[in-house]
Design a protein that fits this description.
182 residues; mainly alpha; 8 helices
Length: 182
């Protein structure tokens, strides 16, 4: 039996676009634990298996909302792969063609940016806007709970990106490649 009112009332609000390094009020693990306690077994298993990386092949999750989200995310990844392959003059014939103009334009904008961090931030904002448009108005629905989980995962992912750690990682990789760090 589902107790979505109890579940949703325990999910704290947070701002996904907050640039500060402040800690999120909830973790993905805690979110998944709450879902297992208050959702039906079927819906809880879907919530626990939520991922920012969609399955390569379209597989039904049982949620029209989640299937739509995974389709859009898969298409965005295919569009990015197509554009990156073209940029590197590689063969892209095995990558499915994306026909959604909005997704292709978002991928073009991201691949045209000079900074990988700026591109990731732009793609995160794009993903959040897609999620906002797709999220049902009924905040006590199963799909709204799934949307909350995806928003939480996107926010957690972006909070891991910091300029200083990125530069340190880049310099370490660069030195390892050149063999200067022996």
């Amino acid at each position: 039996m589902e107790h979505l009112y109890y579940l949703v009332s325990q999910l704290p609000s947070f701002k996904a676009d907050d640039d500060s390094v402040s800690k999120l009020p909830i973790t993905t693990d805690y979110y998944k634990d709450l879902c297992q306690r208050f959702m039906s077994e079927k819906n809880a298993s879907v919530a626990v298996s939520l991922s920012l990386e969609p399955p390569l092949d379209s597989v039904s999750t049982g949620s029209v909302f989640l299937d739509g989200w995974y389709r859009k995310e898969r298409d965005l990844r295919f569009a990015l792969a197509q554009l990156r392959a073209l940029k590197m003059k590689k063969d892209a014939k095995d990558i499915p063609v994306v026909f959604d103009g909005e997704i292709v334009q978002a991928a073009r904008t991201a691949t045209g940016m000079d900074s990988p961090l700026s591109a990731e931030q732009y793609l995160n904002e794009y993903r959040l806007s897609v999620l906002d448009r797709m999220t049902p108005l009924d905040s006590f629905s199963v799909d709204a709970v799934f949307s909350y989980g995806l928003r939480l995962m996107l926010t957690e992912r972006m909070k891991k990106f910091t300029r200083d750690e990125g530069l340190a990682s880049y310099h370490k990789i660069y030195e390892d490649i050149l063999g200067e760090n022996k």
